[in-house]
Model the fold of this input.
Amino acid sequence: MKIDFLKAAARIPSDQLEDLGPVGEPVGAPVSRLRGRVLYAGPDGAVEAGVWECSPGRWRRQVKQAEFCQFLAGRCVFHADSGQRLEIQAGDAVHFPANSMGTWEIIETVRKTYLTY
Done:
């Protein structure tokens, strides 16, 4: 069995992460851009883990799976459709239940490690 290992995820230079392009559902300008690296992807696509980075902007969250993430850098606000408002910064951990929808407001480029399931 191979153990997947990503050393110092917070310090990987952005240009060494895969350019994932612009967000899918931007809300105004600037349009956020995504970068990341998948550390593990389950055989059926139901589980994924990795590191993810997003530049400033506003956009609609599209991940329908449950997600646990640990923020490593930056600042943002998540405006949940339920009315909940989360001010998130480096060091915070968040669990999004499946189908948690809302709008991201990225204030300072954020980086997080994540697990979707």
In short: The chain has a mean pLDDT of 96. The chain is about 0% helix and 55% strand. The domain at 17-116 is CATH 2.60.120.10 (Jelly Rolls). The CA atoms of residues 4 and 39 lie 7 Å apart.
